[in-house]
Amino acid sequence: MSRFCPAYPAPRRQRASGLLMFLSARHSWLDALYERSYRMQMGEVRLPGLDLYMVNEPALVRRVLVEQAEDFPKSELLGQALAPLLGESIFTTSGEQWRRQRAMMDPAFAQARLQVAFPVMAAATEAMLARLEQLAEGAEHDIEVEMTHVTADIIFRTIFSVPMEGEDARRVFDAFARYQALVPRLVLPSIFGLRWLVWPWDAWRARRAAREIRGLLETLIRPRFEARRAGAEHPQADILAAFLDARDEQGRAFGFEELVDQVAMLFLAGHETSASALTWACHLLARAPDIQQRVHDEVAVQLGARAPGVPDMKSLTLTRNVFRETLRLFPPVGFMARQARTGCPMRGKRVEAGSTVVVSPWLIHRHRDGWHDPDAFDPDRHARDDEPGQARAGYLPFGMGPRVCLGAAFALQEATLILARLIGRWQLEAVDGHEPRPVGRLTIRSANGVRLRLRRRAEVAAG
Ligand code: HEM
Q1: What secondary structure letter does DSSP report for 163?
Q2: For residues 127 and 121, what is the distance between their CA atoms, to the nearest angstrom?
Q3: Atom of ligand 1 nearest to the CA of 399
Q4: Mean pLDDT of 189-198
Q5: What's the whole-model pTM score?
Q6: What is the whole-number distance in angstroms between the Cα of residue 380 and the centre of ligand 1?
């Protein structure tokens, strides 16, 4: 059985001082971790103006995210940092405003809607395969570029019912890429309460990119918003149609600005996370050829040369488990920041009101008490059910409690489909001497890309 352990930044032996920790975290928060971070139940960071608690203990995680979620709303610092793009989107709001938005958005992600979205996802996946066909056999290729493209295309098509091909779509995509490159420099200092360390130049560039994205999204949304107001029926059952039809308890629809906030948020959350995870899945499969071969065999048996359908997504169990295991080792949302609403005790410490409480799937998924061989890539552990972490709030790539990811089922469906089609058709090979370097930014990405060689698989390609 393969026991490939992907490289990640070696934790420091000793805890660094608060300031040094912050300076390391500015580039990648993974660099601020130290050995005990992976063993402790709870840790504490104190900087001038910031009390931050890192919570790993399963009971505490449940308390913060599930049982007392109302007492630990989303950190305002994160909301402020993302406000130029996301405004008052569901990702950052709290309380009554969040409850209303969640109730209005939930139906767009119900199982029935996912079934409607499947052919759209399949079309974008086939477009990805067609792009890959243009590659020279065995040439090196940065798979992150393709995974970002296909996931952005899927979310674009499922929101607007148009492929991400036209000039406007291209501009949205490019402006998002610019915004995402800047976000870590805005978010990390903000989370650490050190907003004065955000360079005004970076803040200005982020605001400009955000304005451009919102302007372009508005051009796409406005005609449909107006048409719906005028009583027209929707031409398609896409996410935008569901949002335009959504009503709150008082019968009110989303206002235009609020709608743009939600669409901008979905575009960002809906492809950045999936692209990150799929890129790491390709890296893991390239380094564990035996598992890759088993995925290929599963796809060949379950699908053969037939186009996949919704029921196949359930029967591709190993393919799904590869994705689950990727989410364990490289959870795209590596940490979730909350703010204590009132003072409270935690493991014998007094957490003051306003303190930041962080739950980190990255740490919890690699916690030394939670998993057998925690750094090893072992998709079969998800079929065995004998891991302490599985039973103890120790696996939470999509979060937990009321703020759990709205798009979790969407993401699982899309990732299973993309992986099955990719591995059915292509063999992924590692490139000698290239070792991806994980960095913790908005999601967990590789600082130097994920370069692979792609070779056509004769038997399935012929089908
Ligand atoms: C592998 C892919 C994904 C991962 C790992 C992921 C992870 C997460 C996590 C951890 C949260 C909770 C954050 C917190 O509690 O602070 C979250 C929230 C959210 N995600 Fe995802 N996500 C993924 C894909 C998606 C997709 C595809 C969509 C939409 C199409 C989506 C939409 C959302 C929304 C709307 C929220 C906010 C929910 C709320 O606060 O009520 N996500 N996601």
Answers
A1: -
A2: 10
A3: 10
A4: 64
A5: 0.94
A6: 25
